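Researcher: Hi, I'm a grad student and pretty new to this. My advisor asked me to get structures for two proteins we've been looking at. I'm not sure of the right format, so I'll just paste the first sequence and hope you can take it from there.
Model: That works fine. Here's the first sequence with its structure tokens right after it:
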Amino acid sequence: MIKLVRLKPESATTLWLAFSDGSTAHWSAADLIARDTAMTRPLADPVYFARAFIEGGALAWPNGFELSASSLHRRLGEQGNLIRPAA
């Protein structure tokens, strides 16, 4: 099972993510924030967005909003945005 092992805020809507398989990615939350739901609305504040943390291997924020690492990993891979370690 893929887990998130490190993250670093890069901008108001972007995080650098490192996964348990050694892959990394620059992930933009812009589309997620644009949904403007009760759970995603706080992420529009850059200070709040930067409060992202890892909980149980998932990406999380203080309001309880979470994204599974496996889902992020799969989507980033499908988009060609996943940087895999050299063999």
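Researcher: Oh nice, that was easy. Here's the second one.
Model: And its structure:
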Amino acid sequence: MAAAFKWLSRLFGALAATLAAGLLVLWVLLSGALPERDRDFRVEGLSAPVRILYDAHAVPHVFGETEADVFFGLGFAHATDRLWQMEMNRRAAQGRLSELLGEVTLPFDRFMR
């Protein structure tokens, strides 16, 4: 009985260590994928400063002095949050998904072209 308990405790310890390591790796991978929102960026093309604030639901609120500046800020927010999706939609519309995803998307690329 003692040998079985010792074996089960070692197994449980190994499973707990594996789970903790997996959660740590997942946390590191996901935390690096989030956009930086607490940074100041300096970009050309603006006539005045633009402020982008995110609410509790991650909805961007863009404030600026001119309409053109606000639209630029909105585009910046979209690119910060969804650049990968925008790039994939552009490639899909051009019929160029197979350059990234391989032969699986070749029929779709032919249809789009």
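Researcher: Is there anything I should tell my advisor about the second?
Model: You could mention this: Strands lie at 51-54, 60-63.
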